[in-house]
Amino acid sequence: MIPQLVTVHVRRSNGRRVRMYIPVVPLALVLSPLLVLAVLGGCIACRIFRISPGGALRGAGRVLWALPGTRFEMEQSRTVVLVSVR
Fold first, then answer.
1. Pairing of strands 5-11, 17-23
2. DSSP annotation of 15
3. Average pLDDT of adjacent 10-residue blocks, the chain of 86 residues
Protein backbone atom coordinates (compact mmCIF):
# COMPACT_ATOMS: atom_id res chain seq x y z
CA MET A 1 0.00 0.00 0.00
CA ILE A 2 1.35 3.41 -0.96
CA PRO A 3 1.27 5.94 1.90
CA GLN A 4 -1.62 8.40 1.71
CA LEU A 5 -0.82 10.83 4.52
CA VAL A 6 2.37 11.97 6.24
CA THR A 7 2.04 13.56 9.68
CA VAL A 8 4.84 15.88 10.81
CA HIS A 9 5.08 17.04 14.43
CA VAL A 10 7.44 19.95 15.11
CA ARG A 11 8.36 21.05 18.62
CA ARG A 12 9.85 24.51 18.40
CA SER A 13 12.54 25.90 20.65
CA ASN A 14 9.93 27.78 22.72
CA GLY A 15 8.18 24.47 23.54
CA ARG A 16 5.20 25.07 21.26
CA ARG A 17 4.15 22.09 19.13
CA VAL A 18 2.95 22.28 15.54
CA ARG A 19 1.29 19.38 13.68
CA MET A 20 1.13 19.29 9.88
CA TYR A 21 -0.70 16.77 7.70
CA ILE A 22 0.74 16.33 4.20
CA PRO A 23 -1.36 14.37 1.65
CA VAL A 24 0.99 12.39 -0.60
CA VAL A 25 -1.04 12.10 -3.82
CA PRO A 26 -1.87 15.84 -4.28
CA LEU A 27 1.72 16.72 -3.42
CA ALA A 28 2.98 14.23 -6.01
CA LEU A 29 0.66 15.77 -8.63
CA VAL A 30 1.94 19.26 -7.90
CA LEU A 31 5.55 18.13 -7.99
CA SER A 32 5.12 15.85 -11.03
CA PRO A 33 7.32 17.97 -13.33
CA LEU A 34 10.17 17.53 -10.85
CA LEU A 35 9.38 13.83 -10.56
CA VAL A 36 9.77 13.47 -14.34
CA LEU A 37 13.23 15.06 -14.10
CA ALA A 38 14.11 12.75 -11.18
CA VAL A 39 13.08 9.66 -13.19
CA LEU A 40 15.12 10.87 -16.15
CA GLY A 41 18.13 11.44 -13.87
CA GLY A 42 17.61 7.97 -12.37
CA CYS A 43 17.61 6.39 -15.83
CA ILE A 44 20.83 8.20 -16.70
CA ALA A 45 22.41 7.08 -13.42
CA CYS A 46 21.34 3.48 -14.09
CA ARG A 47 22.98 3.70 -17.51
CA ILE A 48 26.21 5.16 -16.11
CA PHE A 49 26.54 2.62 -13.27
CA ARG A 50 25.26 -0.30 -15.37
CA ILE A 51 22.27 -1.04 -13.14
CA SER A 52 19.07 -2.54 -14.49
CA PRO A 53 16.36 0.18 -14.49
CA GLY A 54 13.76 -2.52 -13.74
CA GLY A 55 15.74 -3.68 -10.70
CA ALA A 56 16.11 -0.11 -9.47
CA LEU A 57 12.37 0.44 -9.93
CA ARG A 58 11.58 -2.77 -7.99
CA GLY A 59 13.85 -1.59 -5.17
CA ALA A 60 12.14 1.81 -5.03
CA GLY A 61 8.75 0.06 -5.02
CA ARG A 62 9.79 -2.09 -2.07
CA VAL A 63 10.83 1.01 -0.14
CA LEU A 64 7.44 2.66 -0.86
CA TRP A 65 5.55 -0.46 0.27
CA ALA A 66 7.55 -0.52 3.53
CA LEU A 67 6.83 3.13 4.40
CA PRO A 68 3.32 2.92 5.97
CA GLY A 69 3.66 2.78 9.75
CA THR A 70 7.17 4.24 9.72
CA ARG A 71 8.07 6.86 12.34
CA PHE A 72 11.32 8.77 12.70
CA GLU A 73 12.46 11.75 14.71
CA MET A 74 15.02 14.44 13.91
CA GLU A 75 16.44 16.73 16.55
CA GLN A 76 18.61 19.80 16.14
CA SER A 77 19.37 21.96 19.15
CA ARG A 78 15.98 22.68 20.77
CA THR A 79 13.80 21.87 17.73
CA VAL A 80 12.42 18.33 17.33
CA VAL A 81 10.60 17.00 14.25
CA LEU A 82 8.65 13.71 14.41
CA VAL A 83 7.48 12.27 11.05
CA SER A 84 5.01 9.37 10.84
CA VAL A 85 3.79 7.84 7.57
CA ARG A 86 0.28 6.36 7.42
1. antiparallel
2. S
3. 80 83 89 91 93 88 83 80 80
Q: Which pLDDT score, from 0 to 100, does residue 1 have?
A: 60
- Interhelix angle for 53-66 vs 32-48, to 10°? 130
Chain length of the chain: 86
Asked whether 83 and 19 are in contact (CB, 8 A), the reply is no
User: Rg of the chain's alpha carbons, rounded to an integer?
Assistant: 17
Q: Are 58 and 46 in contact (CB under 8 A)?
A: no
Torsion of CA 41, 6, 18, 35, to 10 degrees: 20
Query: Model pTM?
Result: 0.54
